[in-house]
């Protein structure tokens, strides 16, 4: 009976995830080339980020990150928003949200490494929630390549889900957001992230 209940719950959650958690449609997000570091290659549809071994020599800009990172063109200042991303299984990556005022150079510019950003990180198959100086191990090993993110700006909640069958809640950050929030993608060598919407 317990197994049957878990299966029904999993089917419901998987169906819900397919159309967006909380019954929402996924937010339509694009990555912003003006913020992309010169070691991040973007797909033509601006949905995917891959770490490049070649310097892409983009024009200099105060908005551009020095290494491994890119933001979304869209930002959120209110409301509820949901998006899904796919990612490399065995590489180092981070996905989260950040204020536009975050610095652009150095270790503290990386999403999750400062008090202006929050993220989910995969490193050596391990999933971790990061908001400096706090770090919480969520799963010691995860092969999943599909995740969901839900932001409730006014309520100050940012939640991450692993979209396997069944869907599982990984972590919820709680904060009082004070600036617009951009989606941030950080990718190490050989890694990739694709935003699905």
TrEMBL record:
<dbReference type="Pfam" id="PF00622">
    <property type="entry name" value="SPRY"/>
</dbReference>
<dbReference type="GO" id="GO:0008270">
    <property type="term" value="F:zinc ion binding"/>
</dbReference>
<dbReference type="Pfam" id="PF13765">
    <property type="entry name" value="PRY"/>
</dbReference>
<dbReference type="InterPro" id="IPR001870">
    <property type="entry name" value="B30.2/SPRY"/>
</dbReference>
<dbReference type="GO" id="GO:0005737">
    <property type="term" value="C:cytoplasm"/>
</dbReference>
<dbReference type="InterPro" id="IPR051051">
    <property type="entry name" value="E3_ubiq-ligase_TRIM/RNF"/>
</dbReference>
<dbReference type="InterPro" id="IPR003877">
    <property type="entry name" value="SPRY_dom"/>
</dbReference>
<dbReference type="InterPro" id="IPR006574">
    <property type="entry name" value="PRY"/>
</dbReference>
<keyword id="KW-0862">Zinc</keyword>
<dbReference type="InterPro" id="IPR013320">
    <property type="entry name" value="ConA-like_dom_sf"/>
</dbReference>
<dbReference type="InterPro" id="IPR003879">
    <property type="entry name" value="Butyrophylin_SPRY"/>
</dbReference>
<feature type="domain" description="B30.2/SPRY">
    <location>
        <begin position="9"/>
        <end position="197"/>
    </location>
</feature>
<keyword id="KW-0863">Zinc-finger</keyword>
<keyword id="KW-0479">Metal-binding</keyword>
<keyword id="KW-0175">Coiled coil</keyword>
<dbReference type="InterPro" id="IPR043136">
    <property type="entry name" value="B30.2/SPRY_sf"/>
</dbReference>
<protein>
    <recommendedName>
        <fullName>B30.2/SPRY domain-containing protein</fullName>
    </recommendedName>
</protein>
């Amino acid at each position: 009976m317990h197994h049957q209940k878990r299966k029904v719950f999993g089917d419901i959650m998987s169906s819900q995830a397919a159309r967006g958690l909380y019954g929402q449609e996924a937010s339509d997000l694009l990555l912003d080339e003006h913020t992309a570091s010169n070691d991040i290659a973007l797909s033509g549809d601006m949905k995917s980020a891959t770490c490049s071994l070649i310097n892409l020599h983009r024009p200099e800009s105060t908005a551009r990150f020095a290494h491994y990172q890119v933001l979304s063109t869209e930002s959120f200042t209110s409301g509820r928003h949901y998006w899904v991303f796919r990612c490399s299984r065995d590489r180092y990556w981070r996905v989260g949200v950040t204020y536009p005022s975050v610095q652009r150079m150095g270790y503290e510019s990386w999403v999750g490494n400062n008090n202006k950003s929050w993220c989910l990180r995969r490193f050596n198959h391990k999933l971790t929630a990061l908001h400096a100086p706090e770090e919480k191990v969520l799963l010691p090993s995860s092969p999943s390549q599909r995740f969901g993110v839900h932001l409730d700006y006014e309520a100050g909640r940012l939640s991450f889900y692993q979209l396997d069958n069944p869907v599982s809640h990984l972590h919820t950050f709680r904060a009082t957001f004070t600036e617009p929030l951009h989606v941030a993608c950080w990718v190490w060598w050989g890694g990739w992230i694709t935003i699905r919407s």
